[in-house]
Amino acid sequence: MKALLALVAAVATTVGLAQQPKPPAAGKVEIFKEADLKPGMQATAWTVFQGTEAEPVPIEIIGIMKNAWGPKQNIILGKMGGKAARTNVAGGMSGSPVYIDGKLVGAVALRLSVFSPDAICGITPIESMLEINEIDQSRPADPKVPGTAQRVSASGSGVLEQAAGAGATMVPIDTPVTLSGFTESTLREFGGMFQQMGLKPAQGGATGALLSPRPVSGWQNSLKPGEAVAGILVSGDMSMTGLGTVSYNDGKRVLAFGHPFFNLGPINMPMSKGEILMVLSSAFQPNKIGNATEIVGALRQDRHSGIMGLLGETAEMIPVNVKMVSHAGAKPTEKKLNFNVFVHQKWTPFLMMVTLFNSLEGLNDHGDNLTYKVRGNVQFADGSKISALTMQAPTEAPMPPTMALATWWGDKFNKLFLNQVDTPKLDSVDITVDLIPERRSAQIEQAWVASNEVEAGGEVPVRVFLRPFRGPRIERELKVRIPANMPKGDHRIVVSDADSLNRMQAAATSNNRFLDIAQTVSLLNQERSNTRVYVSLVENKPTVYSEDKMLPSLPASVLNVMQSARTGNKMLVSMPETAVEQASAEVDYAVSGSYALRVTVK
Q1: Cα–Cα distance for residue pair 524/521, rounded to 1 Å
Q2: Which of 290, 316, 342 is the last residue of a domain?
């Protein structure tokens, strides 16, 4: 009897295994036409709940919502069962392929309602996704990029999402933007910016295989339909990725998400495999929690009906190396971070800002009197480079020093990547941060000259006194040369910090939309460092700024000729006075303030 029961059980198990559907494979697939769909049809979606293997999810077709996502853009409505009935339609399920009788219907891409006990999903028809064209260079009008706010409510939830909560509207499933190696303070400080873009960041993980943007060996067998896929914004010692599901793979071309990632249009972003740790079940905000693993190709399109990538291709990123040197102990100690940043006009400056802030916030060397001295070098493909230096000490301002530095650094890349003439090509970025365990700030307190009467053609020694946060006054002596042709009468000698001089030039050149990359690099290299004190001679003659050049004390006759000869793409900006920098001295403090002296040329 026992033998008979064992035989029956074995047969039943064998039958059960035979009935289990096999996960879909890469390759050409037959399409189930949208016109052939009928309510009540039984379909199967594939998605990963844990690990890397896709699992089947039963779906009952409810019907078709006509023009639900735009003119002639229908949405297939379905009710998910199996594990999805418990998890609900989770973030990261975007792109899960749906089949009927082995034919591909589309991809799970939207959800209906928030608190509904039913896992109601919207399916983007595969015909819409197959329309994504690799060579399409058009750019959508409403991309999700830093500096542009989506339609969000005060609570951070989108208007459409609120409507969905009332059971009215289909909305795209959240794409989890997973941050690995980012501190809680970084998520807190920049969370609002992500929410303004309609994104929901979450802490997660990623592997060291992401350090190189090159596809790993074996990429040919990657990203089968139903498996996890990720777009890479930052990779390496810290990573930022967007997670979804593969909808289609013909062996080279991969489609996923079923809705936009950032709606950027043509992109060049690394594409990686992923693994799912778990699916967080929730009636309000269910999400897959996972890791990006190995880069296997590059995303080329980010469109309304999904994203498209190519296996085996490489999307170049900007390698960034950060070295932080702590001077708190008897001997300096170093910490190094290496990561890569996605190349994009709007995203690159934001990512450079976030990663520097996170690098500084991840240190143990925090204190009220900690000063940061930052040296940055940006190397371009043509051999040119930008060298920048600044020092940031604690102040009474509400912005913490780490955020002030991150903003300063991000501004450099904004000026480069928002260039309207050309796109910068960067080879590498190197940053060195010295952490000094004292408050190294100094205010220009006073300046002094031996005599207020000076000779044209001579030199005037100027003594400058600065008051540091603690300790004795700092004194520096600089010399101002009085031009031989300086007209007689009263003039000014101005002792100032770097900001005073940089501000004038920035104001004069900010409206010039026709500066090319080389001219922008030249202007960035002309910016003064706030670790020095500067002495300038001010004359009552106009200064003219032409492209990246400053033309001081320009005669009116020359200015008239230049203005009459200028073309529409060459702007001339003039200032009523000329402040010619005569000398500067290193102070190794964050210098602020200014002081003016009146002198009379005899």
Answers
A1: 5
A2: 316
